[in-house]
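Write out the 3D structure for:
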Amino acid sequence: MSNQPYNPGAEGAKMNFADAMSYGDYLHLDGILGQQHPLSQAHDEMLFIIQHQTSELWMKLIIHELGAAREALKREDISAMFKMLARVARIFEQLNSAWDVLRTMTPADYTRFREALGPSSGFQSYQYRLIEYILGNRNANMLKPHEHVPEVHAMLSAELDRPSFYDEVVRLLFRTVDGSEDAVPAPQLRTPHAVVPEIQAQWKTVYQDIDRYWSLYELAEKLVDLEDYFRRWRFNHVTTVERVIGFKRGTGGTSGVNYLQKMLSVELFPELWQLRGEL
């Protein structure tokens, strides 16, 4: 065994990047790692910033995957769509794990920098709102916090004017079970998707004849899986906030834990959940 330190260059690894793209160049790490700017001297503010910045990066990937999944669904490329939905569910699992890191911050730690946040709050995340809009939870009231950024407001508003991902799923459902889209209920574009009995009846047909409608059945279960992880993310958010600030108001003026608890009752694909009581 040699006592000399390992030199990967001796085996052919490139070691000089003066004239070539390096790992940091490709990922633009100087830009990314230079965006953490605590506004206080509190040690835990760095944790708080990185937690939320990394969550936004994961949400960017979710939006990328859901957009592609919607296009794959429209052209009935079901296999590609399934892969993307499975990836989105795993991303939510990753986001869930991140709460464990933030929960190492105690109430005393958070108090040291909370005032520095001003009225900024996670509920103002436009990427989170876009994810909800794409999936079908469409609360037009939540456009208002984004009016000060016209391009963001326009993007969110445009999403409200097009069928959601779930609307496209419903079209496929009727097209497969009925053989046409003639009886497809009108999309609920600017309101949260509420249970439509006709849609639930179609899903019941699928669940009562799994062998015949296997792809639709598999799609339904992937949607339930995705929402399961999404709900856990919301629940972990609630418990983390309660653990850190109790029932104080949120920095953005919401009722804090009470506001987040209301979000737990929202169902993205309500017919698939309500159906379970009929089977």
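The chain has a mean pLDDT of 90.
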